[in-house]
């Protein structure tokens, strides 16, 4: 089984770096390996003899740049190196790396990028401490304006390693070589868009050290949850595959529930029922075949249906309406202690009432699936949850606060569990931004939970499968297509 890909924050990486040094690997050796990885990547991007311009910063990122410059010069490239700040200010391993550089050092402001065949951006890495200004910012802007290929060392300078935010200005790289593990900025937007293709170079820090310092943040990929995917046994019957219940909105708002229901069925929930308000029974009946239908008159109706213990997973929210009745249905569902996915109106109905959600979901597997706007509405008045700059941190705090898995949607969907685990999703396509796409996602997650997949893994798998389906379809995608693409994705995953 492939191990899940660890993602380390800059501070975790720094600790792992120190642990590696304490375990007997000299820091300069790590830097040499890092610089060599950069040089090897540069060789793939520029042919021998080409002009390579290295922009080096005042810290260890700059040190990697000096090593790469030396190796590339030895290998016949015409290398020019510019340094931000005086060479005498370089410290530690970076100072040692600079001593190995036999060429001249140009002040960064005099460095010309327009004649380069390749630019190596070694200005700042994980140590970026504030917004770029002055010469540093000008250098970044000039690099971008040159429109030459850029190889970023560790991360594009100006991108915040923790959050992926642009701090004043940031390099737009074509390729990034990072070391030991990706950092959040390689997956979170807008950082991900600044990185180009990312390569992780092994610089000899053993995985147990990385696991000890990181270990809670992952790239969302099958390695994280494939082993949890349900595989029906030879003699399985449908009730062993779970029964998902999806609440429908009123007569003119029924499509969302059917999208979720169909997705739950496609991902393998043995049975799926739409719980419909009496006035919408006709319209729902006209559009359902394999999916069953039950009349459900508000919270009391839901309470009655849930007396049947076979309904083991529930979707509430899509097109349910923003009002106290929806809140009451959530309360009924929470008391019934079934696996629960709350989305859209079920979240917005709690606008300004975040305190009612404190610890509300700690007794049964629950997944909240807000997009950014819903998240902001839901936690209005809670700066502790809304203010952190990091999307991961916001989602983590919301998960700890509510006791639910929180799935904060977007091009960089983040999934967090109350125990602190978090995953960042990176597959998918902007074509997923289409009406009803989120409803389908709810159904996928509930359908997995109905089959016994734990909430965090169900949310991670649901997001990935949803995105993969969207990516496979591409242009012209509408929400109705998504569930139909799930079988192909599942087949490949279960192979
Ligand atoms: N971890 C590992 O395993 C390994 C890590 N390695 C490498 O080390 C890198 C991290 O090195 P790092 O900690 O020295 O930080 P780095 O990114 O060079 O920047 C710090 C310097 O920039 C300065 N500075 C900051 N912000 C600024 C601003 N806005 N404007 C202007 N200046 C600013 C800051 O100065 P100060 O804040 O003190 O003024 C300081 O001088 C990492 O990304 C990787 O490439 C590899 O060698 C191998 C193993
Ligand atoms: N640019 C994008 N790249 C990848 N996925 C996206 C992008 N924009 C939206 N998505 C995904 O599409 C889905 C949209 O859900 P949502 O906003 O709830 O839509 P709706 O309410 O219309 O169903 C989410 O899973 C989200 O992560
Ligand atoms: K850099």
From TrEMBL:
Q: Pfam families, alphabetically?
A: Carb_kinase, YjeF_N
State the InterPro entries in the record. Answer: CARKD, Nnr, Ribokinase-like, YjeF_N_dom, YjeF_N_dom_sf
Domain YjeF C-terminal: start-end pairs: 221-493
All copies of the YjeF N-terminal domain together span 13-211
Reactions catalysed: (6R)-NADPHX = (6S)-NADPHX; (6S)-NADHX + ADP = AMP + phosphate + NADH + H(+); (6R)-NADHX = (6S)-NADHX; (6S)-NADPHX + ADP = AMP + phosphate + NADPH + H(+)
Which annotated residues bind K(+)? 61, 121, 157
Enumerate the residues binding (6S)-NADPHX. 60-64, 125-131, 154, 256, 371, 439
CDD domains membership: YXKO-related
Cofactor note as given: Binds 1 potassium ion per subunit.
Instruction: Give the enzyme's EC designation.
Output: 4.2.1.136, 5.1.99.6
Its cofactor is: Mg(2+); K(+)
Binding-site positions, AMP: 409-413, 438
Alphabetized, the UniProt keywords read: ATP-binding, Isomerase, Lyase, Metal-binding, Multifunctional enzyme, NAD, NADP, Nucleotide-binding, Potassium
Tell me yes or no: is NADP among this UniProt entry's keywords. yes
What PANTHER family does its record include?
ATP-DEPENDENT (S)-NAD(P)H-HYDRATE DEHYDRATASE, ATP-DEPENDENT (S)-NAD(P)H-HYDRATE DEHYDRATASE FAMILY MEMBER
Spell out the subunit comment.
Answer: Homotetramer.
Entry similarity comment: Belongs to the NnrD/CARKD family. In the N-terminal section; belongs to the NnrE/AIBP family.
**What the protein does?**
Bifunctional enzyme that catalyzes the epimerization of the S- and R-forms of NAD(P)HX and the dehydration of the S-form of NAD(P)HX at the expense of ADP, which is converted to AMP. This allows the repair of both epimers of NAD(P)HX, a damaged form of NAD(P)H that is a result of enzymatic or heat-dependent hydration.
Its recorded name reads Bifunctional NAD(P)H-hydrate repair enzyme
